[in-house]
Design brief:
By secondary structure, the chain is an alpha+beta fold. The chain has 2 helices and 3 strands; from the N terminus they run βββαα. The protein has a 3-stranded antiparallel beta sheet with strand order 1-2-3. A hairpin with a 5-residue loop joins β2 and β3. The protein binds zinc ion (ZN).
């Protein structure tokens, strides 16, 4: 997917956010209760197009290492939107 399904724009960006993966309320979290999520969004209309966990990203990077692909941010994120 290379275009936003909502507005058709090809101006897409990944961003990283921290998420609560535990049961504690905000402000009482232990480090093991904080996870990371990657979000692919449209720069034009703010549509959320895809999300991947930090573990998903690590698995893709490992697969690329095993396949001896050129591990660059561009190639990794191209794989994410295939
Ligand atoms: Zn859009």
């Amino acid at each position: 997917m290379k275009n936003c399904p909502e507005c058709g724009s090809n101006k897409l960006s990944w961003c990283c956010q921290k998420v609560n993966v535990g049961m504690a309320i905000h402000g009482r979290l232990c480090l093991h209760e904080i996870g990371v999520i990657f979000v692919l969004g449209c720069d034009e209309c703010s549509e959320t197009i895809d999300t991947k966990s930090g573990d998903d990203i690590a698995a893709i990077m490992t697969d690329m290492l095993i396949a001896k692909d050129q591990l660059t941010l561009t190639s990794m994120f191209a794989k994410l939107i295939e």
